[in-house]
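Tutorial handout. Part one gives the primary structure; part two gives the three-dimensional structure as C-alpha cells.
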Amino acid sequence: MTQPSPTARIGVVTVSDRASAGVYEDRGGPAIAAFLQKTITSPYELVTRVIPDERNLVESTLKDLADTQGCCLVVTTGGTGPAKRDITPEATLAVCDREMPGFGEQMRAVSLKSVPTAILSRQVAGLRGSCLVINLPGKPSAIEECLLAVFAAVPYCVDLMDGPRIETNPAIVTAFRPKKA
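Part two.
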C-alpha cells in the first residue's frame, strides 16, 4: 500500500458502458477534474479511469485507487440511478469499511431543489482504509451541484484519515475545519 504524501492523489472514475466503449465522449470525469482544478489550491494529482458498468471492475478499480495508487479521495460519476446496470453504489459499499451516509443525503437534498427525479439517485460515500470514496451522478451540471454541496467537509475528512492536507479556494468552497484542526 502506498503511504500518503504531501501531494494528494485523487481518483476520478467514470462508470459508463458507452463512454468506456468510445460510443460517446466522457463528460463526467472532465467535469469532476474541472471542479477540482478551480477548488483545490494545494498540490494534487489526478488518477483517472473510464470503465464500464461492471460491478467486479468497479470494485477492483476502487480497491486499486485506494490501496495501490494511494488516493486519499476517489470521486466516481455514473451508475447511481435505478437502471439495471447502475451498480456503482453497490460496488462502492462492497469495498468500503464504513459508509458515510451524510454525503449521499446532502447531495440528494440539494439536487431535489433543482429536479424532482433527484430522488432516484442512489449515490453513496464510504471509507476504504485512508481513502474517502464519493459517488456522483453522471450529468456534469449535477456533478458540480453535488460537489458544491459536500466538498467543504472533504478536506477535514481526509485530515481525520491522516491524509495530505487539502486546501480550497474560498471563492468556490471554504473547507471547514474545527478551530483546533
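Part three, for discussion. The beta strands are 8-15, 44-51, 73-77, 98-99, 125-128, 131-136. Residues 55-68 form the longest helix (14 residues).
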